[in-house]
Design brief:
Helix Hairpins, three-stranded mixed sheet
Length: 322
């Protein structure tokens, strides 16, 4: 049975390699899709700047043509003003001049705005083109790397599958069925190493009797918690502490504190019972001091505190005998 467990451990190593290769097959296309999405965003930003620059240049060209036409109209209107014969025609010419002047001002303002927009887009276009070039190069490099990894992973999966099938054919069918069922149920993780009475796959404690039987590898045993095939792994040897580490762990003696001072150097607090008691000198004898004890004892009587002194009925006086 120990040989079967050893083959199971080798099979589990092959399954782990297959899991790593399948993870590469899953992550490779995802990385390519994310890189392509990023590249599309950079290309869209570059194309937007380029299209807006072309539109601004076309608009500037139209404005310049309109300014040239307005300049010709202004020159012709000036000649018409010199040839005006009556006041009515002269006023019409002046009205046309005002209109031409207003349109010229609007076109000049639009021309300045278009030129500023063109300058801004021309400054933004080279960095966008540089970023697009770098993104394309990075995407091409990533694509080559991912394709190579995917090809290698596919070859590794197919070769490992063949080795696993060959090893399962050399094992008892019942034992091989245990391994195949456990691998299917736990996504390829069929084996569970156990050390110090703990299953390292599910982190659950193994009963002591089961743990003792497992160390002999006499039969196939499943974990009571995760139902994986268990195999014993000896615990790592404990390192004996060296003399230097033992000295480092030994508690250090505290430095002696100065008398009457704390660790920070402040004066130490003196307990109340150790402080000298300050006693007042006795009061001189006087009639008031002589009556003080009697007054204090009178104030402690319960009937006095409850106000019974005033409400206490007086003793009836008997009339004198005749």
């Amino acid at each position: 049975m120990q040989e079967v467990i050893a083959k199971f451990i080798e099979l589990q190593k092959l399954e782990d390699e297959i899991i790593a290769a399948e993870r590469i097959l899953e992550e490779g296309p995802r990385q390519l899709a994310e890189s392509q999405e990023k590249l599309d965003g950079v290309r869209a930003a570059h194309d937007d700047i380029a299209s807006r620059l072309a539109e601004a240049r076309a608009g500037l060209k139209v404005l310049e043509e309109e300014l040239a036409k307005l300049k010709d109209l202004k020159e012709g209107n000036r000649l018409r003003a010199t040839k005006a014969n009556d006041e009515r025609s002269y006023k019409a010419v002046l009205s046309e001049q005002d209109t031409i002047k207003k349109l010229t001002g609007e076109n000049e303002e639009g021309t300045l705005t278009a030129m500023e927009e063109i300058d801004r887009l021309q400054e933004a276009l080279p960095p966008a083109a540089k970023l697009l070039k770098e993104s394309e190069a990075a995407h091409a490099k990533l694509s080559r790397t991912v394709r190579a990894q995917v090809t290698e992973a596919e070859a590794a999966v197919s070769s490992r599958r063949g080795v696993i099938d060959g090893m399962l054919a050399t094992i008892d069918p019942a034992a091989a069925e245990h391994f195949v069922n456990s691998a299917k149920a736990h996504n390829g993780k069929a084996m569970a190493p156990v050390t110090e009475s703990t299953c390292l796959a599910c982190r659950m404690r193994i009963p002591p009797q089961l743990y003792n039987e497992l160390q002999g590898h006499t039969k196939i045993m499943l974990c009571p918690s995760c139902a994986r095939i268990m195999h014993f792994v000896p615990p790592p040897p404990k390192e004996e502490p060296s003399a230097k580490s033992a000295a480092a762990k030994r508690p250090k003696k505290a430095a002696p504190k100065p008398a009457g001072r704390t660790a920070e150097g402040w004066p130490a607090a003196v307990p109340c019972h150790a402080r000298p008691q300050r006693r007042l000198p006795p009061a001189p004898p006087s009639p008031a001091n002589a009556l003080r004890p009697w007054r204090e004892s009178l104030s402690l009587r319960p009937w006095h505190l409850s106000g019974r002194l005033r409400s206490r009925p007086s003793r009836p006086q008997t009339p004198p005998p005749p």
